């Protein structure tokens, strides 16, 4: 009940900053219905707190993608970097997508993903590893237990980690695998792909040359500015054409022109 009261108070301009702070420090777990699915919210987490207070998140992305989903129909949705399943749950209700496959390497996020899938009685294939350019072991890092949507694969060339005090960082050992290793056999399928992997985009693309070249792909990929040219070049080599951008999310396809 107190969470709902705070949510109503959030509508007032003077309380826009106070309410999120109260939820961050005192909030726990709650359940909401958003769009067409149920979703566990952990209010200490920044992204989930935003979803709770605004009852929406990335809806402009959904609307953009649904124009094409409703026109072409898709055999699969690959949610690479699914976090706790927000995109997977949303698109699982779309009858024009036959199969959902979610990838999330962070174990804490993955466990929340499984709970959200069970909450909605859905059949979604899940993988608790990171897509990359090699099969093996790796380490992810994050600077806060309540901001694990930004979990990143440890990379000596990633300057982002230098912004934080090293002794306060969190680390977790994970497994990596290439998309081609498990889904390189797919051919001539219509596949919607969302990639949100915190500066590991090019590695994901490198490990999926068969997958990306042999199927009809509509791609949403989040790219940070310093890597934009490199990722755009890789997609061009895979014969992808640029369609649109919404903030740091960029849209490409190898079978849709616009």
Descriptive notes:
- The protein has two domains: 2-54, no CATH class; 59-138 and 177-253, Rossmann fold.
- Helix 5 (86-92) links the parallel strand 3 and strand 4.
- With 258 residues, the chain is α/β, with parallel strands linked by helices.
- The strands form three sheets. Strands 5-4-3-10-11-13-12 form a seven-stranded mixed beta sheet, with helices on both faces. Strands 6-9-7-8 form a four-stranded mixed beta sheet.
- It is built from ten helices and 13 strands.
- The chain is globular and about 50 Å long.
- The longest helix is centred in the N-terminal third of the chain and has 14 residues, at 59-72.
- It is 34% helix and 28% strand.
Outline of the structure:
The protein is α/β, with parallel strands linked by helices. 34% of the residues lie in helices and 28% in strands.
> What string, H for helix and E for strand, traces the elements in order?
HHEEHHEHEHEEEEEHEHHEHEE
Please, how many helices? 10
Whole-number total of structural domains = 2
Portion of residues within helices: 25-40%
Major β-sheet profile: 7 strands, mixed
* The CATH C-level class name of the largest domain: Alpha Beta
**Neighbour order of strands in the largest sheet:** 5-4-3-10-11-13-12
Task: Indicate the mean pLDDT.
Answer: 94
Could you list the spans in which at least 5 consecutive residues all have pLDDT below 50?
none
Structural class: alpha/beta
Q: Give the terminus-to-terminus CA distance.
A: 46 Å
- How many DSSP E strands? 13
CATH third-level topology of the largest domain: Rossmann fold
Radius of gyration: 18 Å
CATH architecture classification name of the largest domain: 3-Layer(aba) Sandwich
Fourth-tier CATH superfamily name of the largest domain: Vaccinia Virus protein VP39
